Amino acid sequence: MTRLIALLYSTVCYAVFLATILYAIGFVGGVVVPRHIDSGTSPGLPVALAVDLALLGLFALQHSGMARPGFKRWWTRIVPESLERSTYVLLSSLVLLLLFALWQPLPQVVWAVGNDIARIALHVLSGVGWLLVFSSTFLINHFELFGLQQAWRHGRRQDSGGIPPFVTRAFYRIVRHPLMLGFLVAFWAAPTMTLGHLLFALATTGYILVAVKCLEERDLLAIYGDTYRDYQRRVPMIVPLPRRGT
């Protein structure tokens, strides 16, 4: 029964994540959802900046802090190891939902594309970015990334599966972090860029670059060693630019 409950818990965490990421598409793009990045009445520049930066900082702290190996070792004394990833996904989703709910708009327009065809092209490009995000997760192991596979193994009394295989197929041959590239494309491909949207795009871009370079890549080197070091030499991190001598 406890194994079944664990699997149900993991499934609920995944469902919350899926709803959150779908809402994020509408939130950033300003479509469909009732509250998006530019909706509502701004409380003024100082208050909006303070609130929005605090929300972005909270997400960065939770998202990176809970992913540290040291935190995981402590956390799995409280949360079963098979549910650690699902709980991380759930808490990340809840922090994002809090950001969506409390975000303060800054509607001042920084730039706006007037040509209808160009506007449509930017919307399509943003969609391509989100598609790259989703497809990149399936190129590695989507269900392990979001905790379902760990709970499934636990339910079937299987071992943890060990270190995930090192994947370099498809987009991963072009850049080391295509998922992050997808986020950046989705965030910046905006036909109308307001001050609030610009703040969101700048902050998330900075966070992605720092977190990937200083945290995630360090963890990957610790896991895969020379295999990942060679991969770093051959393939650019996020921007798909050719390397010298390639």
Structural account:
The chain is mainly α. It has one domain (2-234). Helix content is 67%, strand content 3%. It has 10 helices and 2 strands; from the N terminus they run H-H-H-H-E-H-H-H-H-E-H-H. It has helices spanning 2-29, 45-65, 69-75, 81-102, 116-139, 142-145, 148-155, 178-188, 195-224, 226-234, and strands spanning 109-112, 192-194. The longest helix has 30 residues, at 195-224. The chain is globular, with a radius of gyration of 19 Å. It starts with a helix and ends in a 12-residue tail after the last helix.
Structural class: mainly alpha
The 3D shape can be described as globular
Number of strands: 2
The order of strands across the largest sheet is 1-2
Q: Runs with pLDDT <50, length 5+? A: none
The share of residues in helices is 55-70%
How are helices and strands ordered from N to C? HHHHEHHHHEHH
- Tell me the major beta sheet: 2 strands, antiparallel
**Mean pLDDT reading:** 93
Whole-number tally of structural domains: 1
Helix tally equals 10
Instruction: State the separation between the terminal residues, measured CA to CA.
Output: 55 Å
Radius of gyration, CA atoms, in whole angstroms: 19 Å
Share of β-strand residues = under 5%
